[in-house]
Amino acid sequence: MDDFLAFSHIGKSYPGVRALDDISFSVPRGTIHRLVGENGAGKSTLIRVLSGDTEADQGEISIDGQMQHFASTRDAFAARVVVVHQELQLVPSLTVAENLRLGRFPARAGVIDFRGMIGQVGAKLADIGIHVDPRTPVSQLSLGERQMIEVAKAVMMDARVIALDEPTSSLSSRESEVLFELIGRLRAQGKVVIYISHRLDEIFRLCDGCTVFRDGRLAAHHTTMEGLTRDKLVAEMVGREIVDIWGWRGRIAGKPRLAVEGVSGKHLAHPASFDVRAGEIHGFFGLVGSGRSELMRLVYGADKRRTGHIAIDGVTLAGRDPKRSIQAGLVLCSEDRKYDGIIQGMSVGENIVVSARRHFSPFGLIRPGREGETADKFIKTLRIRTPSRRQNIVNLSGGNQQKVILARWLAETGVKVLIVDEPTRGIDVGAKAEIYDLLYSLAERGIAIVVVSSELPEVMGISDRISVMCEGRIVAGFERADFDEHIILAAALPDRSIPEPTKRAS
Amino acid sequence: MAGLLKRILLGEQGLVVIFVLAFALVSVTVPNFLTDRNMLGLFQSVVTIGIVSCTMMLCLASRDFDLSVGSIVAFAGMVAVMASNASGSIIIGLIVALAFGTFVGFVNGVVIAKLKINALITTLATMQIVRGLALIASDGRAVGINDPNFYQLALSKAFGVPTPVWVMLILFIVFGFVLNRTVFGRNTLAIGGNPEASRLAGVDVDAMRIWIFTLQGLVCGIAGILLASRITSGQPNAATGLELSAISACVLGGVSLAGGRAAMLGVIVGVLILGIAENAMNLLNIQAFYQYLVRGIILLLAVLLDNIRSRGLR
Ligand SMILES: Nc1ncnc2c1ncn2[C@@H]1O[C@H](COP(=O)(O)OP(=O)(O)OP(=O)(O)O)[C@@H](O)[C@H]1O
Ligand SMILES: [Mg+2]
């Protein structure tokens, strides 16, 4: 078997963290290889070493038998290795064609040959099966389409090795399908695709092999998926068996705590109403873009409401801004941690206590001891992988940042209603189970919980009741006894569910 | 060896190390530098920058900017003189001057936070408006003070140290405390780190920004009064370029222009570095023109340092 891409003895340390420890494995040509492991296990770090973004302390990478030394991403490009990071690196105001040729514009005497460029790019896109007009500005594309353009960028550089870091975590299932198809074609062309994802369902149908990371070390390496089961993989990842990831526990729901009536706003034209009872977990399912996050942001007061009435325990919520919502006991853990979640440059501890500290800061004076205790408690319960609470949050792995945001809201006292939007995006299986468990114990304390998720198994696994949204409306509701995958999914799909082309009519 | 040097210079205490080295170097090479008299003079010369840098630090830490400080300082000094003359009471003069500074700061804050106008543009406008008002009110000339007791503000001493220096030291302590130990200070840094995330975490971002600019105005009022007392008149052209010196001092002190990072100790050291450079050049009889050159170079080096340091953080 030819070992096209080979890592040997890769090691990388950060202060207080051994991110990669003696990693050796190889991947043959024309395969899709998956990296799995808990949050902070070192997957992204390996990808960053591969892309020349980070230099390893020890070890070597070879491609096609040739030793590589990447001091920068430029070197990696030259060796035709391209990485698609989770934070997409496109210029929103430029068109698709411009983005794809950025830095390499076809020009005559300094004047860009737009017509030629659009023709070329269009042909190439059609060639790889992406149906997007090259003249569309990237800002008008959906997240999935942008992801596709990033992959196209890699293809156009004639990459031999393409690595994707959690590409599907914010894609709808239909968008994911298109991406998978594209990846499949790359495999057929003999490329190596390295693929990171926490979604285990994708692995068996898509990958040819996988490598399991645990605490920076290689826990297992499989060159074939045959004979491998989901449970075995999970056990290799977390070092223990997880029988039932959902671990649903029944509760008796009390009186309605949150009552939302006729709420609408700029991004949600049709007024929506729903309620959540004390001790109830109310799931909101829908496709990406169905208006769930918009609705929750309106309820929380993150965006301005046009109409509507919100009451908590029968008391009208007077304020229309996050601060007053929090004071009234309503909190929202939003979905986009990079943009409106983490506070860059501040420590893990500060990020956890930023909201809750007002409860233990008499006269606005901070009590560092109390803050430290609170932060440490949640670092422990959520098993946030960080050398200490003083670590700068940007140094944490993606999933661990997500846990910090969750901790911020779990640290709030006096919460009556907790809305969590995609709480487990980018979070590993082991931690997922713990987060669900935490949600149940909060519900058992009488807190009303709303869970927004695009993963149907998750919504069905943990909710007592599900509301389905489609195109900005709540279209259906189900009690736990009536949960049925097919019926719920059907409700979430728009009526005219003829597969529309990827190009969005704007 | 080079790695160790790099780590020391770019680390948390890098600036302090640079400062100690520079201080030692200047003490040895410049005659008359390390004398009681010169040290007091040095502190007195940085009072205005030092005081204004306290709130400039908060402003930069929350990802904002204030260019209007120099104008507010000048006009507040004139207001103090004119109001004292008109009312016959220095106390009233001081109160009016402080109220004036606070008011301009408040206006800055409201325009920036509520009308969502870029801080650079807003304060560029108020900088010119206030300077214009100062020139109009005085017809471009210095305004003398009637009551000689006004000079006492700057001349009086406690334990051998002039009052303005005490004021500066107290403000250093106060704002150091505010930044590190109050919810207000931490929220300021949070806003600078990520405004939208802070808002969703329940920080009242608009109110915070208004408060920060209002405080800045108040502190400029204090600096203006002390400056007018020291130069024994209200000068409409006083404190030109102060905004740039204060920002330089902050950046030199490790405050990130991208927001989210600030330390009082750093800012104090930044202020002193600027002060020492100027003081040493004065002692060496270097022409004032060259001082601009040196200040510019120091600023450039500071930004460079900031840049390398934040790249090192990633
Ligand atoms: N720049 C850095 N400074 C300090 N520590 C870092 C830095 N980058 C990564 N780490 C640490 O290295 C470890 C591995 O991180 P990495 O991002 O590779 O994890 P991951 O497997 O991708 O996790 P996730 O599934 O959460 O994305 C983590 O403990 C992280 O905190
Ligand atoms: Mg990662």
What is shown here, in short?
The complex is a heterodimer of chains A (506) and B (314). With 506 residues, chain A is α/β, with parallel strands linked by helices.
Question: Any descriptors?
Answer:
heterodimer, A: 506 residues, alpha/beta, Rossmann fold, 3 domains, six-stranded mixed β-sheet, 17 helices, 22 strands, 32% helix, 26% strand, globular, disordered C terminus, B: 314 residues, mainly alpha, ABC transporter involved in vitamin B12 uptake, BtuC, two-stranded antiparallel ribbon, 15 helices, binds adenosine-5'-triphosphate, binds magnesium ion
Using the alpha-carbon principal axes, give the shape of chain B. globular
Report the principal-axis shape of chain A.
Answer: globular
Largest sheet of chain A: 6 strands, mixed
What is the H/E string of chain B?
A: HHHHHHHEHEEHHHHEHHH
Number of strands of chain A: 22
Question: Describe the biggest sheet of chain B?
Answer: 2 strands, antiparallel
Number of helices of chain A: 17
**Total domain count of chain A:** 3
| Assembly state (oligomeric) | heterodimer
The total number of structural domains of chain B is 1
Strand fraction of chain B: under 5%
- Major interchain interface with per-chain residue totals: A-B, 31 and 27 residues
**Strand portion of chain A, in percent?**
25-35%
User: Roughly what is the average pLDDT of chain B, rounded to an integer?
Assistant: 89
Query: Strands of the largest sheet of chain B, in order across it?
Result: 1-4
CATH H-level superfamily of the largest domain in chain A:
P-loop containing nucleotide triphosphate hydrolases
Q: What this model shows, in words?
A:
The complex is a heterodimer of chains A (506) and B (314). By secondary structure, chain A is of the alpha/beta class. Chain A folds into three domains: 3-238, Rossmann fold; 242-329 and 417-506, P-loop containing nucleotide triphosphate hydrolases (Rossmann fold), CATH 3.40.50; 342-413, no CATH class. Helix content of chain A is 32%, strand content 26%. Chain A is built from 17 helices and 22 strands. Chain A has helices spanning 43-50, 73-78, 96-101, 114-127, 143-156, 173-188, 200-206, 230-238, 292-300, 322-327, 337-340, 348-353, 368-381, 398-410, 429-444, 456-462, 485-492; strands at residues 5-14, 17-27, 31-37, 58-63, 66-68, 81-84, 107-108, 111-112, 161-165, 192-196, 209-214, 217-222, 256-265, 268-277, 281-286, 305-312, 315-316, 330-333, 417-421, 448-453, 465-470, 473-479. In chain A, strands 6-9-10-3-11-12 form a six-stranded mixed sheet, with helices on both faces. In chain A, strands 18-19-20-15-21-22 form a six-stranded mixed sheet, sandwiched between helices. In chain A, strands 2-1-4-5 form a four-stranded antiparallel sheet, with helices on one face. Chain B has one domain (35-249, 261-313): Orthogonal Bundle (ABC transporter involved in vitamin B12 uptake, BtuC). In chain B, helix 4 packs parallel to helix 9 (163-181). Chain B has helices at residues 2-10, 14-29, 36-45, 47-61, 69-87, 90-113, 119-138, 152-155, 163-181, 183-193, 195-200, 205-230, 242-252, 264-283, 288-313; strands at 143-144, 157-158, 161-162, 233-234. In chain B, a hairpin with a 2-residue loop joins strand 2 and strand 3 (161-162). Chain B has a two-stranded antiparallel ribbon. Chain B has 314 residues and is mostly helical. The A-B interface holds A 300, 302, 321-323, 325-327, 332, 334, 339-346, 350, 354-355, 357-358, 361, 364-366, 368, 392, 394, 408 and B 180-184, 186-187, 189-190, 192-194, 196-204, 256, 259-261, 313-314. Magnesium ion (MG) is lined by residues 43-44, 165, 397-398 of chain A. Residues 43-44, 165, 397-398 of chain A line the site of magnesium ion.
